[in-house]
């Protein structure tokens, strides 16, 4: 991406966050769909949105992916069925087997790690406290790994205060991977103050990408007149970034799905604007927003980078023999893939 300033109109400083956009788990999930289409041809079926972003979903639909809510919507077929990056309850692959469907599980490895952490608590005869948001696919998937009655969802500090477990000495917690780091820490602190024997997960549950994107937004938010977060309304990690920007000092912040959502009236009153993207938002949308702002403003770009991400998650063995070309991912990565 060319980030040199272009002289035009009002002077605006754009604080461009890094890291931003796709994480390794999202990138892997999209690659799985693309590679499955290359190997098997269309259609390839996907249960739920592969990631929470309509631009990505529509791009994959244009290539032959068919998205369904439930497996019983899929006709009898030998074509692959892919589970989303958010993870699924154990009942879903069992149902796929019963329907003789050939499925590929695109669950993010870090979400799978949370599943294993929760099951580890169960093996140690602990009741699992899952800190997360009710109804989120990741929470549904994690709860669906555990025997009924062995887990309780905690969404707020108030719910942590109200919890009355049968055995306060046998509790363990895990968290959704896309939560606010600071808000989650408050909930865990309250639980730990009430239940000193509370067992930690074997490793941090909130994923590296969520933490890194929130830290970059915190750094860029102080003194910002407005903050733009690129992401979908149903993307938990993107919505958390809006909250983080406000708490860290931005005068205002908004979630935008594309350049069509840019709040020009507010931006024309701003001199410093922050820009980041949730972990399921493609870089091409960020590039389009920057170019739209260049046409309106004399834009000076400052990079607000707090970490370098090198994580890569390989696709499953069945797809590793399929070559992935740069052009295969250009619909989400833009013309200059890899630039962050």
3D architecture notes:
There is one protein chain. The protein is α/β, with parallel strands linked by helices. The protein folds into 3 domains: 10-23 and 208-309, Cobalt-precorrin-4 Transmethylase, domain 1 (3-Layer(aba) Sandwich); 25-108, Rossmann fold, CATH 3.40.50.11270; 110-194, Cobalt-precorrin-4 Transmethylase, domain 1. It is 36% helix and 19% strand. The protein is built from 12 helices and 12 strands. It has helices at 24-40, 54-62, 91-98, 109-123, 137-143, 157-162, 181-194, 208-221, 236-247, 264-267, 283-296, 330-333; strands at 10-18, 44-47, 65-68, 80-83, 102-105, 127-131, 151-154, 171-175, 226-230, 253-256, 272-277, 297-305. The chain has a 5-stranded parallel β-sheet with strand order 10-9-11-1-12, with helices on both faces. A 4-stranded parallel β-sheet has the order 3-2-4-5, sandwiched between helices. Strands 7-6-8 form a 3-stranded parallel β-sheet, with helices on both faces. α8 packs parallel to α9. The protein is flat and about 65 Å long. Residues 1-8 have low confidence and may be disordered.
